[in-house]
Design a protein that fits this description.
About 40% of the residues lie in helices and about 20% in strands. It has about 220 residues and is of the alpha/beta class. It starts with a strand and ends with a helix.
């Protein structure tokens, strides 16, 4: 998570243990997949309350409507998480970092999170610099298995780094045009397995430094 307090309510009647399970599942693929600056607060919290006013039969994992409830909850959590990133201090870009082809899902998450948290990568996004070197460096120190002769890095659908070969400079402007958008995607394909994961993040701008330098918490 980033620094946040989240409060969710539903009219559905849900068994308390099932409610806890549903929230944990939703948070894992939403709030736990967003990064603003990599810092966390000691009071990061998400609370889900169910009032039961809908009058439905009690929801549990064995209820035929259970997965619909979990999916809806996950959608709400993910949308809130994305809005939190867009509202990040000084953020000018919403960036979806996708890692695919990792040896394991754990490797994919580690690599995506390292890219999303890297100050050098995030400032390159603000500066419209498709700096694939900073991206592959972050993947390299993430702990994920990586072979730089197999990896590919994309800005949007434009390949900046292709299995040891660097994109032609003629593509630089095209990649910068991708990065001018309010929202864009950076994809790393490791070509080592089936693992994949996605982290949602933002750039770091001058305003981020200005905002955080001017107040005391």
């Amino acid at each position: 998570m980033a620094t946040m307090l989240g409060f969710l309510t539903t009219d559905a009647a849900v068994h308390p243990k099932a409610l806890d399970q549903a929230l944990r599942e939703a948070v894992e693929v939403s709030f736990n997949r967003v990064v603003v600056d990599g810092d966390r607060s000691t009071n990061d919290t998400v609370i889900l309350m169910a009032g039961g006013a809908a009058g439905n039969t009690l929801l549990t994992p064995y209820h035929p409507q259970w997965q619909y409830f979990v999916d809806a909850l996950t959608t709400v959590c993910l949308e809130l998480g994305k809005k939190m990133v867009l509202d990040g201090e000084g953020a000018t870009k919403f960036v979806t970092v996708c890692v695919r082809g990792a040896r394991t899902g754990q490797d994919a998450q580690a690599a995506a999170r390292a890219v999303a948290k890297s100050a050098l990568v995030k400032t390159s996004w603000f500066g419209l610099d498709p700096n694939w070197g900073r991206v592959i460096a972050a993947v390299g120190y993430s702990g994920a298995e990586v072979d730089d002769q197999k990896a590919q890095i994309f800005y949007g659908d434009i390949c900046a780094y292709d299995q040891g070969r660097v994109a032609d400079k003629a593509l630089l402007k095209a990649m910068q045009e991708v990065m001018r958008k309010r929202a864009f995607e950076v994809t790393v394909d490791l070509h080592l397995g089936e693992g994949e994961d996605t982290i949602y993040t933002c750039d770091l701008s001058y305003d981020y430094v200005k905002i955080n330098a001017e107040y005391t918490t």
